[in-house]
């Protein structure tokens, strides 16, 4: 179990445990458009949807999870949270979900699987959660284009090395960067992740910045503390 300030997440049945990526995306994702409806693609434990329920007044927060164990865990985590009336999880793949879209969403978030290396682990469940062939970037962007409302925001966290490709693919679907934050573990390490937010409106001078998580082991930067303090117990 993982306890946050306002909710608890059980993760014993999920292949992908709670990590910094999910917490970063949940805390960083722009909600200036005051979303009424939110969709989390690839919910895992449900952590990102739960964080967005805490941060926003969205009345409809849907999550999508293909893995049965993770889906059931998400449902439990949603039901045991203070926002159970606003959270709902679908047990489906992205391809099924977009076949008959019923709703548009003001905010779509995803911490997609992205280990594209040839290495595969011994467990198929973990591989499914971690490998990009389960949900290629193009499928994700196409779905976002299909499901995003006119003034909606689409927000993801991906490996920095994939940023250029992702931006180019998004542009093909007329989704334009609204904000980019590049994440480093420490001041001396290389950039590891890109947090990307998109909208349908092209903006010329959108903010691009860098976030460093810690200066040394467990010595977190003021910026990281500021971003996550509403969630982590010890921040």
Q: Concise description?
A:
The chain has 235 residues and is α/β, with parallel strands linked by helices. It is built from eight helices and twelve strands.
What report would you give on this structure?
The protein has one domain: Vaccinia Virus protein VP39 (Rossmann fold). The protein is built from eight helices and twelve strands. The chain has helices spanning 20-28, 47-55, 68-79, 94-99, 124-130, 137-147, 163-172, 222-228; strands at 2-3, 8-9, 37-41, 60-65, 87-91, 105-110, 148-159, 176-184, 191-199, 208-212, 214-216, 219-220. The chain has an eight-stranded mixed β-sheet. The chain has a two-stranded antiparallel ribbon with strand order 1-2.
| CATH homologous superfamily identity | Vaccinia Virus protein VP39
Distance between the termini: 18 Å
Overall body shape? globular
Q: What percent of the residues sit in helical stretches (DSSP H or I)?
A: 25-40%
Q: Which structural class matches the secondary elements?
A: alpha/beta
Count the strands?
A: 12
**Low-confidence region ranges:** 128-132
Order of helices and strands: EEHEHEHEHEHHEHEEEEEH
Tally of separate domains: 1
CATH class: Alpha Beta
Question: How many strands, which pairing sense, and closed or not: the largest β-sheet?
Answer: 8 strands, mixed
Count helical runs.
Answer: 8
CATH architecture assignment name: 3-Layer(aba) Sandwich
Strand order of the largest sheet: 5-4-3-6-7-9-8-10
CATH topology: Rossmann fold
Radius of gyration, in Å, reads: 17 Å
Average pLDDT score: 90
Approximately what portion of the residues adopt beta-strand conformation? 25-35%
């Amino acid at each position: 179990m993982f306890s946050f300030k306002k909710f608890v997440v059980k993760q014993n049945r999920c292949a992908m445990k709670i990590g910094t990526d999910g917490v970063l995306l949940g805390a960083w994702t722009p909600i200036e458009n005051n979303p009424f409806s939110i969709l989390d693609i690839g919910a895992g434990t449900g952590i990102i949807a739960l964080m967005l329920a805490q941060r926003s007044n969205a009345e409809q927060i849907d999550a999508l999870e293909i893995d049965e164990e993770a889906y059931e865990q998400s449902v439990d985590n949603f039901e045991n949270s203070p926002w159970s009336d606003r959270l709902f999880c679908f047990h489906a793949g992205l391809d099924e979900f977009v076949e008959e879209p019923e709703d548009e969403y003001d905010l779509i978030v995803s911490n997609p699987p992205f280990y594209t290396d040839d290495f595969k682990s011994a467990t198929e469940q973990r591989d499914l959660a971690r490998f990009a062939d389960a949900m290629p970037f193009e499928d994700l962007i196409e779905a976002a284009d299909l499901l995003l409302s006119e003034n909606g925001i689409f927000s993801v966290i991906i490996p920095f090395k994939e940023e250029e490709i992702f931006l180019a693919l998004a542009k093909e679907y007329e989704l334009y960067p609204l904000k980019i934050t590049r994440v480093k573990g420490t001041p001396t390490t290389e950039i590891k992740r890109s947090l990307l937010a998109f909208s349908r409106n092209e903006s010329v001078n959108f903010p691009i910045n860098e976030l460093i998580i810690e200066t040394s082991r467990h010595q977190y930067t003021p910026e990281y503390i500021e971003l996550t303090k509403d969630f982590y117990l010890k921040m």
